[in-house]
């Protein structure tokens, strides 16, 4: 079977399904894995939340400009946490520091840095990508297509020369190093402000927007997380729900069918415009509950900017089935958000 669904196929939105079916018909596409966070992407030919394999060709534009985008965590045992984060005292200071931590910031959209906690650990979680270097690589890819296969969206595999792959790896490496910088500097912030004691926190990183060039072909992951060895990965759910921490079950046959990938989030159920409509349909008491819970995100007028509203939990799909439909995953932990910083250096 060419396409394997790790989600209820009948629940996939129609426009996402249509673009997926059109893509499936192309002769040079091998197997496809579809994850629960699948959703329509207006920019390119295949929805987000999908991985697919090719052997003779590769699709350089399919992951968009933010190649290398992913999620990293720094995990701190509860025994090293000295006190709860004081939002009133330190939210703005943390936000300002996050702003200055790297040259290019977190970026817009869903990119975020959060402190999240489970029963046993405090996590610093960051979701960000390759920023301008990714845009540069995207433009290089457009030029390559124009030169070698005008009017098409694929290149013959021979065009993935050692130089090309080296350049591509440089972009992925840059995105990964930015994530590491964010979590390490946030750890410094927490140490300096006596929130955590010195220790040996554990770092884990994963990427969900990439082409993986291997001997047997190319795995394209468009908003689907790469599973490597037995490493843990974060599946962020939403600003109000937190995240799932999972790892691959290497004994489960589904892992190969999933192309060593999994969902990279809960996935949007409402477009950004529909999310705003939903917000305006809420009762005053419901809105006030959000205002109280996320008081640090209110603007000077005491309301949320629309960029924040578009990210609230109602924008995202229910995540209850995430593990049930992906049997190749082992649940390691589940977090609840403490504080989230969004949108820096847009
Ligand atoms: N823990 C948090 N998860 C979040 C937040 N905002 C979004 N999300 C989830 O991340 C995925 C990935 O987003 P994408 O832009 O790469 O598609 C998304 O599907 C949500 O489930 C947050 O603030 N905290």
Automatic annotation (TrEMBL):
<keyword id="KW-0692">RNA repair</keyword>
<dbReference type="InterPro" id="IPR036025">
    <property type="entry name" value="RtcB-like_sf"/>
</dbReference>
<dbReference type="Pfam" id="PF01139">
    <property type="entry name" value="RtcB"/>
</dbReference>
<keyword id="KW-0479">Metal-binding</keyword>
<dbReference type="GO" id="GO:0030145">
    <property type="term" value="F:manganese ion binding"/>
</dbReference>
<keyword id="KW-0464">Manganese</keyword>
<dbReference type="InterPro" id="IPR001233">
    <property type="entry name" value="RtcB"/>
</dbReference>
<feature type="binding site">
    <location>
        <begin position="264"/>
        <end position="267"/>
    </location>
    <ligand>
        <name>GMP</name>
    </ligand>
</feature>
<dbReference type="GO" id="GO:0006281">
    <property type="term" value="P:DNA repair"/>
</dbReference>
<feature type="active site" description="GMP-histidine intermediate">
    <location>
        <position position="264"/>
    </location>
</feature>
<feature type="binding site">
    <location>
        <position position="243"/>
    </location>
    <ligand>
        <name>GMP</name>
    </ligand>
</feature>
<dbReference type="GO" id="GO:0170057">
    <property type="term" value="F:RNA ligase (GTP) activity"/>
</dbReference>
<dbReference type="GO" id="GO:0005525">
    <property type="term" value="F:GTP binding"/>
</dbReference>
<dbReference type="InterPro" id="IPR052915">
    <property type="entry name" value="RtcB-like"/>
</dbReference>
<dbReference type="GO" id="GO:0003909">
    <property type="term" value="F:DNA ligase activity"/>
</dbReference>
<keyword id="KW-0547">Nucleotide-binding</keyword>
<protein>
    <recommendedName>
        <fullName>3'-phosphate/5'-hydroxy nucleic acid ligase</fullName>
        <ecNumber>6.5.1.8</ecNumber>
    </recommendedName>
</protein>
<dbReference type="GO" id="GO:0006396">
    <property type="term" value="P:RNA processing"/>
</dbReference>
<feature type="binding site">
    <location>
        <begin position="236"/>
        <end position="239"/>
    </location>
    <ligand>
        <name>GMP</name>
    </ligand>
</feature>
<dbReference type="GO" id="GO:0042245">
    <property type="term" value="P:RNA repair"/>
</dbReference>
<keyword id="KW-0342">GTP-binding</keyword>
<keyword id="KW-0436">Ligase</keyword>
